[in-house]
Structure formats: C-alpha cells, structure tokens
Amino acid sequence: MTVKPYHHGDLREQLLIAGELALAELPIAKVSLREIARRAGVSHAAPKHHFTSMADLLGEIAARGFDKFIVALGNAAEQSKRQTGEDRLLAMGRAYLRFADQNPAVYGLMFGQVSKMSMTPSLTKSSYEAWTQLESAVAQITGPTQAPIGATYVWSSVHGLSMLKAARRLPPHVSLHAVEEDNLRIMVAGLREL
Amino acid sequence: MTVKPYHHGDLREQLLIAGELALAELPIAKVSLREIARRAGVSHAAPKHHFTSMADLLGEIAARGFDKFIVALGNAAEQSKRQTGEDRLLAMGRAYLRFADQNPAVYGLMFGQVSKMSMTPSLTKSSYEAWTQLESAVAQITGPTQAPIGATYVWSSVHGLSMLKAARRLPPHVSLHAVEEDNLRIMVAGLREL
DNA sequence: TGTACATCAGTGAACGCGCGTTCACTGATGTAC
DNA sequence: TGTACATCAGTGAACGCGCGTTCACTGATGTAC
Q1: Min distance B179 CA to chain A CA atoms (Å)
Q2: Is A150–B194 a contact, with Cβ atoms under 8 angstroms apart?
C-alpha cells in the first residue's frame, strides 16, 4: 500500500510533475504558481508550503532534468563502451540531442537563462556532474589537458544545434536527422585537431 | 531644422528605441507595451497607433537587429577580403560573437523563440539575408555543395557559444577570449574535413 | 491504550498590482474648395 | 490666401484579467503523558 503522508500525499511531488507538464504545454510566461496549483488540483496558496516561489520550483525541476540527462548520456556511453572514444562521444551527442528534443522546456531551463530559477544546491551539484561527465568523455579523445576547451567546444556546438532546432530556426526542407549527423561528424573532426 | 511630422515627431521610431533600451535593462517578461510607452514619455494607449502588439514591435526590433548584424559581419568580411576564406570566416565569427555580446537582448530575439514576436516581412527578409551571407562565406571554404550543411554547423557552434556566454553558463575562471578563439579555431578545423 | 494538545498542510476570501483593451475626448495636421 | 472640414496621433479614465501575497480558518497528522 502506498504511503500517503499528510493530507494529499506528497503534494511537493505532484507540483513538480504538474510544473513539468505545464512547461511542456504552455509558453513559460504562462506558467505561474497558480497555474501549477490548478493543475495539481489544490488551492493556489497550497504550494507555498513546499516552494517559496516559482523560481524555487523551476530550480528543482531543472535539477531533476539534469539527473535524467546524466542518466541518458551515461546509458549512451555505456552502450558504446567497447567502441572508440569518438564513437562514444557521437553516441552521447545523439543522446544529448534526443534529450533536448524530448524535453524542450526542461532543457531550456537547464541550459538557458539562470534568472528564471533559483540556483538550488541540488541544481548546482547536478549541473556540475553533467559537465564532468562531458569533460571525461572528451578527455578520452583529446587527453585531460585539452579536455576543458574541447568540452566547451562540444557543448557549444551541440547546445547551439539544439536551440536552433527547438526554435525552428534551421533552414526548412532539409532532413533534421541528416543535419544532426553531419554536425556531430564535423564536430568530432574538429576535436581531432586539438 | 528637424522635420517633426505629427504631434511628437516620429513616435514609432521613439518606441523602437525605447523598446531596445527596455530589452537591454529588463528581463523580457517585464517588457510591456505600457513600459515602453512610459519610457517614450507617452500615454500607454499611444503605441496602438503604430504597433498592434508587443510581438509586432519586437518583430521590428529584431528585423533592425538583423540589419545591424549583417553590416557588422559584412564589415568584418570586407576588412579581411585579402586573406584566406578561413581567416575571413574567423573574422566573421569574431564579429558574430561581439554582436551577441553587445546586444544580448536583441540577439536573443533574433535567434531565440519565434513565439515572442511577429514574423514581419522585413524580419523574414533580413534573417534570410543573414543566412545567405553566412552560407556564402562558408562556400568559399567548402564549395557550394557543402555550404548549407557547413553553414548550419558553423551557425550552431557560434550560436551555442553565444548563448552559453550570455547565460553565464561557461565554466568560470577561464578567459572568455581564449575560449572564443579556441572554439572558432576548432570549428574551422572541422569545416576543413567537409 | 487513550486523551489532550501541538503541529502543519491545505482552504478560500481578500488585497493591491500591472497588464492589455476600449472609448470618448482633444488638438494638431492635412486637404478641398 | 483663407476657411471649413476630415483625418489622425495622442490622452486619460475605466474595464476585466490573472498574478503573487496575506491571513484567519479547517481539519488531519504527530506526539506527550
């Protein structure tokens, strides 16, 4: 039997889920604490017992996003662990693009303007872990000395593609999949020069 | 003597300038038609005679941004026209990053979510011109066949770096200038593989 | 085990705020004759 | 050139809206004895 502490079960959890759904369905300007409370089926003042502000709630959603993100990239790396470092980075790049595709709003939170959300300790920790994960993967190609600059480069490149895709700014009438593959390929080729 | 047609001189122009200033100083969520009217020193209903909505005004600001952007990159290309295609692309990349740095809010409009603004004809035209300009520069390195994919790649890479910089997401304690130079260098190296 | 009390999650009405929109208006500019 | 009228830019009050915040409250859960 599920434990339902307090009145509504873990409202905190429900609010986070409602928040993610709201982010997925609405422009971020329309996502308010009242809107999220409405979706969670509680009065608009109820969230105050769990989150002091929208920024707080968004920070927690972003932190959870990073956790899922790390798992997704970790799985990709794991599945290609018998291949070369370049193949592994390609696999992680594909996982990155897939994550951004499937979680556009959360991705925007994670890598967008910090101003929208509180930098909670768990968020700081998770985002740092994601960075370390990428840096390690790059280090296997470039060596540890060049890894920070290589990782920054890889990150910029894949992040830029994700953002342009999400904003539907890429030229139309080209296969997105082909664009992604080409981008990853050129990106790795550049890294080889380091 | 300056011609001052109608009552306040060209309020349309004033509103665009006030809008750019507001975007530079405030988070975009705080930029409203009323706020812009206030800054332009007119009543809050006055802008309706010139712009039907914020989205309209933002679209026009973005279009002007593209015009300045094209000039900035064109100047960079012009000044390096006696150098190699790669050097020219590097110069344009630097001009791109400088533009994004100096006009973060307008840059965000230009290359960010379309939903915030109206896709006016002048905006469509200007953004297409910017794309063509980049594609031509890349074509001088890769040849015309590979130019679209090469340009998409270059754009992703530089756009990603600009966004991460603006969001202050890059690892601290590294020289931003060095990061930029390294990124551009690796980017061009990747292009060479095409 | 039972009772009495403290704690705490969630309610719902009320508040002030800035927003976009509407509308009757004022007054300057443009135009017909 | 002058007059009369039409057009149009900008005003300011009023409206309804959703927001975050506050606050007295209800009622369930947890705890001391």
Answers
A1: 7
A2: no
